[in-house]
Amino acid sequence: MTATTPRPPAADATRLRDVAGAVPDPEIPVVTLDDLGILRGLEVAPDGTVEVTLTPTYTGCPATEVIAADVERALREAGAPRVVVRTVLAPAWTTDWITEAGRAKLRAFGIAPPSGAGPVAAPGTVALTLSARCPRCGSLHTREISRFGSTPCKALWSCRDCGEPFDSFKAL
Description:
- The chain is an alpha/beta fold.
- It folds into two domains: 10-87, GMP Synthetase, Chain A, domain 3, CATH 3.30.300.130; 98-169, no CATH class.
- It contains four helices and seven strands; from the N terminus they run ααββαβαββββ.
- The chain has helices at residues 10-21, 33-36, 64-77, 100-109; strands at 39-44, 49-54, 82-87, 111-112, 142-146, 154-159, 165-169.
- It is elongated.
- Residues 22-80 form the MIP18 family-like domain.
């Protein structure tokens, strides 16, 4: 640390963490990185470099690079002189990391959030979701139309009561 690059105080690191956490998800812009639990950490190095750790919802998530660029841009606009964004895959992201606020935002946007803890399956088996609650009318009288929704982390469902199709976040 030199006189020209003093280490920001802890309050500044907290402020920068809030800035990074407020970045919207590019595929579901009503939720933030904090809402989804994607932002795993932020530290300020002695030289002032802001080091951010992200865990994508899927290993091959197509939005990972966009999210990293959006975080870097937001932090630079907030005054960070240098930003390094690292993607970590372990531990793997889980829908358990979605906050209650994030679940509410998904529901209000018309996406069924996963309920509670993800499914637990024995090794060599596939977990089965019996029903997703319709985010429009609240019915459990729904059916999965396709395991593949508008993004890799969602499946396409339909409500048998209100007739509306909706995305459902896959529980992981």
